[in-house]
Amino acid sequence: MKNKKIKNIIYASLGGILEFYDFILFVFFLDIFIKIFFPPQDENFLKFSSYLLFGIAYLIRPLGAIFIGHFGDKIGRKKIFYISMLLMILPNFVIAFLPSYENIGIIAPIILFSMRILQGLAVGAEVSGSWIFVSEFVKGRQIPLALGFISMTLTFGLLLGGLTVIVLKNTFNEEELELYAWRIPFVISAIFGFLALFLRKHLDETPIFEKIKKNNQILKFPLKQALKTHKTSMLICFLMSVVLTSGIATLMILPKYFYKILPLNEIEILYIQNWAIFILMIGSLVQGILAKFYGSYKICIIFSLIFMLSSLLLSLHNDYFVLFYFITCFSQGIVTFAPVFMTQIFKSELKFSGLSFAYNISYAILSFVTPFIVDLFFDTYLKFYFIFVGCSAISCVLILKYFLAKDARNIF
């Protein structure tokens, strides 16, 4: 039985790895996509196209959450989990072999946008689905440990993508990258995805959903019920999404400004960025382990305070900048508590719909505005953004402890 749980947890993590791997590839190759898949236009048009191409997958996520989440509560976690993975893989395969604008004209950007939309629909349920799936196989304080592992594996996808970019940049010149080499990681992603899809065929349905089905507790419109009865739960999802999207700030956006502070070239900055991703991985797992023994409330508050303090020191931009950056990333392992809290504050019969909708709406909005906040605040006020992130996590603990989850001490 224990081995079956471990197998289900590992297989559930594969989709998140794939999603985050694709995320970082799109960040690094976006300029190449604009060059080869779009018609030559003025710079403002191309810049707008790049933002739209990257952001469309995130803006479409809530629709995927509504549709796929609904069926996750109606027909089961396992079946939807398989479908969402398939919808992530097929676009990667198409993108890997998509002809350029020069070859097929306007059809190229149309197909590319279509594939990003399809990925966005799938991602709308993939991550939240993996949280729910795993949390329904474990009990009590095993939950933060299991979800700490899931948080670590999601970040591992970023690390894989970052290392892939370093290898490509060290192996190919700019012309080779633009001509064909950028396609290599997308081919790898498609192959990995089909392997993960095969493994997911062997997943078991969660015991909680089996119980819902057996007791005839399946709701006709679970999201409608969640919107009526779980407003405070959705506030928790928003606040913890603030914590989750702060990873975009530290891991993806801050490194763009390192050249202002550190005498480093592009490859050296990439190495620091990948070390930061690895450190966040370890921080997520360590905090999940500590939460198992000391409780999620206590560990979340402690590391939220460390996160705020280290970000204040980071904003000094002194000789210890890299050290404070790494400490900030380690303490940012509080992302572990996002799924821990979210999965325990919805009734089981509407959990997939309610959690997926609230998380994806919040994430879509926050991931869109976070880059602008960092760009605007970097020089002087960025520390206040990080303080807001830490306060959001602590606020969730207080709301849960005193209002929402008074009976969940065995978990939190």
From TrEMBL:
Classification via SUPFAM superfamilies: MFS general substrate transporter (SSF103473)
Boundaries of every Major facilitator superfamily (MFS) profile domain copy: 8-408
PROSITE patterns: MFS
Alphabetical keyword list: Cell membrane, Membrane, Symport, Transmembrane, Transmembrane helix, Transport
GO MF, any single term: symporter activity
Family annotation (Gene3D superfamilies): MFS general substrate transporter like domains
Keyword Transport: yes
Membrane-spanning residues: 20-38, 50-68, 80-98, 104-133, 145-168, 180-199, 234-258, 270-290, 297-316, 322-345, 357-378, 384-404
Topology in membrane: Multi-pass membrane protein
One family name in Pfam for this protein: MFS_1
Cell location: Cell membrane
GO annotation, cellular component aspect: plasma membrane
The name this protein goes by in its record: MFS transporter
